[in-house]
Structures are given as C-alpha cells and as structure tokens.
Design a protein that fits this description.
alpha/beta; single chain; 7 strands; Rossmann fold
C-alpha cells in the first residue's frame, strides 16, 4: 500500500533534550518534501507546533484535529492547511486514525502514549492494519520498548512486536520505513 498521509502523535511541550525538537523539525521537513500529508493534533505548542511549522515551511499539507476544550491549552494552530475542531478526544483520535495510512509516534507524555496504545490495540484487534513507527530520539522510548518486549516474552501479545511497531533512531530512518 502506498502511503500518502501519516498521523503524527507527539507532545504539546518540547521536552528537555533539544534534539527532540531538532528531530521533530527534520521529520516535518522530510514528510513535506516526500509529499506526505500530516494529520496531527492541531496545536501550535511544543513538538506539535514544531512538526507543523517545519512541514508548512516546506509547502507541506498539514491537517490539525483538535478538541474544542484544547484549543487554548495546546494553542491551536491558525496557519494550517485545515483545522478541524471536534467535540472530544475520542473523535479526534478516531478521525486521525481513519485519515492516515501510517502513524509516527514522537516523544510526548500521557496523551501521546494514549494515542500509541489505542493504535496498537486497534491494530492487534484488526480494526486497522496501519504501520506504526516510533521516532526513538536519544533512546527516549527504550524503556517502553523493553517493557513491550517483556509483554511479548511473557506471552501477552498475539503477534510479534516487530509486526506491530518499528523503532527508528532518526527521522530519515522513519522516512525509509514509510517508503519501504
């Protein structure tokens, strides 16, 4: 299946390591230059703003989907290709999942992990078969990866972890996997 749109899940903060924002900007540029539409949470704060602004600067198409109650919290982005305001988080996530061909998970907090695990669960339940890639900047997701491997080792996963999720240390490797 040719991938034409990706959901990007990431933090509404930048985090402590400056490389998070650097990798996020590089990913946004690479996605735009590859002609891939970005669907993301619609914010202009943190890594969300970084990925959107980097893609837009390269002429990329960026669709934001934001719940009404988060318009101020995440400082909704007013310069997007399209901003969709939805009533709640469930609607946001469902629209993002339905609109993408693959997902990329960047560093983030509880919301990012919620989105990751819902996508993984829906993938396992065969609600969708979209590829999921983690941008593992500076080993950010190494502890989670170890825990997921533990789940597999202990017999709690139905399939191989590698069939469900790919860990990539750099933005360029994410693009290689998407093109793959």
């Amino acid at each position: 299946m040719r991938i034409s749109s990706v959901a990007v899940f990431c933090g509404s903060q930048n985090g402590r390591d400056p490389l998070y924002a650097q990798h996020t900007a590089q990913l946004g540029r690479l996605l735009a230059l590859a002609g891939l539409k970005i669907i993301y949470g619609g914010g202009n704060a943190g890594l969300m703003g970084v990925v959107a602004n980097a893609a837009l600067a390269e002429g990329g198409k960026v669709i934001g989907i934001i719940p009404e109650r988060l318009k101020e919290w995440e400082r909704h982005h007013s310069g997007l290709t399209e901003l969709v305001v939805v009533p709640d988080m469930h609607t946001r996530k469902k629209m993002m999942y339905q609109g993408c061909d693959a997902a990329i998970i960047l560093p983030g907090g509880f919301g990012t992990l919620d989105e990751l695990f819902e996508m993984l669960t829906w993938n396992q339940l065969k609600i969708h078969d979209k590829k999921i890639y983690m941008l593992n900047t500076s080993g950010f997701y190494d502890p989670l990866r170890l825990h997921l491997q533990h789940l597999e080792k202990e017999g709690f996963l139905y399939d191989s972890l590698e069939e469900r999720i790919g860990f990539c240390p750099t933005p360029s490797q994410v693009l290689e996997k998407l093109a793959g």
